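Reproducibility note. Readers wishing to regenerate the assembly model reported in the main text can use the exact inputs given here. Chain order matters: entities are listed in the order in which they were concatenated for prediction.
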Amino acid sequence: MDSESSLTLPITSPLTEFSQIRPRVLDAVVNRTIDEVPKIKIESELTAALYLEKQRLHRERGNLFTKKRLKKDRALWNGIQKELLQSAVITDRGNLLHDVAARYAEEIGGRFDPKVYKLATGLLPYGFNWLLNAASVKSILPWGMTEDVRSRLRIEGELQHLKKLAAKGTILLVPTHQSNIDSILIGYVIYLMGLPPFAYGAGLNLFSNPVLSFFMSNLGAYTVDRQKSNRIYKAILKNYSTRILREGIHSIFFPAGGRVRSGAIESKLKLGLLGTALEAQIENLQEGNPNPKIFIVPMTTSYHFVLEASTLIDDHLSEAGKHRFIITDDESSQFSKVLNFFWQLFKAQSGMTVRVGRPLDVFGNFVDEEGNSIGPNGTTIDSTRWLSSYGKLGIEPDRDREYTRVLGNKIVERYHAENTILTSHLAAFTFFEGLRERYPEYDLYRFLRMSLSQRTVPWEEFLAEAEISHKKILAASDRGMFHVTPELRTSDTKAWLKDGILNLGLFHGNAVLKRGDGVLYSEDMNLLYYYRNRLAGYGLSLRADPRRRVPGAYDEKGFLV
Amino acid sequence: MKKDFWSKSTVAVIGGGSWGTVLTKIVAENAADVRLWVRDEEQARAMNSTRSNPAYVKEMVLPSNVRTFTDIERVFEGGVQAVIWALPSKACREQAKRFAPLFRGDEIVIHATKGIEDGTMKRVSTMLAEELPVSRIGVISGPNLAGEIARDEPAATVIASEFREVVEAGVTLLSTPRFRAYAADDVIGIEWAGTLKNIYAIAAGALDALEFGWNTRSLLITRGLAEMVRFGMAMGAKEATFLGLAGVGDLFATCSSPMSRNYRVGRKLALGEPLEVILRELGAVAEGVRTTQIISAFANERKIPMPITQGVSELIRGDRPARDVLRALMQRPPAADISAEMGEFDFGR
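Running the prediction on these inputs yields the following structure tokens for the assembly.
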């Protein structure tokens, strides 16, 4: 990538001029949401929201950064409660709904300040480089030699394609989501590509971390508070993301709704959010927008270590995980851990791989460089026709739900194909599957609790297993099942294993894999499972039916296949 | 409003076999303009002048809003709103490739093809989705022996699609006072049911040749249904679909009517005639022969218990005479009656 020239490009986009369009966007969102609530439903929607908000405000404990916001919220809802107790003749319910909607819209949208964006993007590489050099000096690099952050960050895939499409329509980037670091990293990747900042929704809880908050709000983030479960808030959020797409602001959705807990590639997506892309597409076409097209671009990130892996996998393994969808307190909310993460990141031999996937249209068809949707047999798909029913272009809820479902499946399929397997993933996978061969009768929970001697394997035996799984993975990669990192393109088993074992979960207190005297063992089976899962969903597990690729499925012993 | 839209619509029917011709007549009662595509120039000329299809369904008269073409461009001229796809499964992919450039994207496609693709085992709707630049595809399937419907005997069918719009179009276009269309969304189940039943039609023909009575036939149909459910569920179908018209309904008709081609193949096989001779005499496609071989190989590999299918496969290959096949089937180990999963029943051995 020619990143030098891209760094000097003037960056303007609807988002950098956001302060000008902001009042209009927020107004449109509020009005649309109010229009969507039938007159006779206003009272019951407000009452339901009041109940849920009161519960939330009772539950939430403010900290230094959120105290003020909570206080304002309490004042708002106490007021609403008082007004709702009055007769509808005295206090107009429509006005109350407007107050609530306006407050939500204000909270969600727009902290973006183009001046600060320049500062933030300017600081980011400096900060990265400083960390990198400080860390490098400490490790192996000779004095005077500096290394650029970009050499640790591998950006692959359809970069040029994405850049071209960004000028022809609106991009909706849909990355896999493993870590809260993702959004910063992706924001930075977008900057390196010379693209204008993308808008994205980030959990309100993350804004309480001053470091994350600074970068996020200035890399285009708007806030999403998943603690607010009432329908008015959800409608505002949905209408906000639709609206900014329609304004031509490139956006990022994490379609799984949150970080993946198991470590595997996402297999289930939140279709509600994805559906807004289709809605924006239809409305763009209806309005005769000159650049109406919305392009869906899958993106995958591959890490040797994930900052929050311990919390995530524990959550996945515990029954509670199903209820506790929002983790508000994990490693990424602790300042020192974030700093330490970056430190370790740059100390590592190789960093992260980000892969820009093949762009799709809102139906999941591939899109060419001109932005045309490609149909079978060289045909071009006419989006307007696909979105016309009974001869008329427009929203058709049943049809659109099906389109979105198909798009969701396609994104899951592309995620798997665009995934990059790192040396550490293969090392974890090989070791884990080797243990499974040795203890085939164990179910997942028994397996993860095996004794240290059980999870210790003679090095030579492991080496032989690694050679076999390496061959298998390369063959699968050649068949287009996924990509592998260049470090795996070697016939030297010891070399890639060294790289993999060294880098695997470097950050964690316990070594995921550790070499002892002629043996290899794992200090943390949960983490081992987490990193092994990056190769789940492909039917590659030794005990999986190789003819069936079922992302997100479990075998009879409770392991992800 | 929607009914209005369809009553003013132009519909293309692709394939002028017996079923395609009967469907053409039904659609013509509900749409403004119906264009039937056939491959053979002479057939087209005959159909346009006599308003009937003497080769397949001679007694039926086609209404005046039907025109028959061999030129695919003429069929799609000015755009059509719906396409009824009635080609044999073997011809589907190749013909779809030819037709692809003519589609505009908003057409609703409903196929009436029972069968799967050789080698890939892909369902017809999958094949069409891979070849045609349209999204809205559905299937019509049910106990629909073309000859009976041509004579206007009461009958019913199922229209299935993931898109409700397609189902609505199908029900509107393909219903008459004597032909009732039901709605469904389990496309996988409907398509597999329509494919698999042909295997049991061959078996039913064989039983007929052996001159067994109703008990035996009932045994075949019921245990055949169990196999269909087992297989269908392994492919992602819904169990309940097999209890519907396109499942047990179609199975029952196919296994009872001596008119069906697969039934005739099974009968002649059991009488000891070699397959090549039978197929040559038949002159038309018997989907079941191919289907049986594909399914039995697949079920073997995946360990899906389908003993009847394996038996029919042996009969088709000429490995064993019908009587031996049947004897072997009757002497299988004891098994549970109701349960797709239970398989062989353990009597505490």
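We highlight two features of this model. Residues 187-209 of chain B form the longest helix (23 residues). Residues 342-349 of chain B have pLDDT under 50 and may be disordered.
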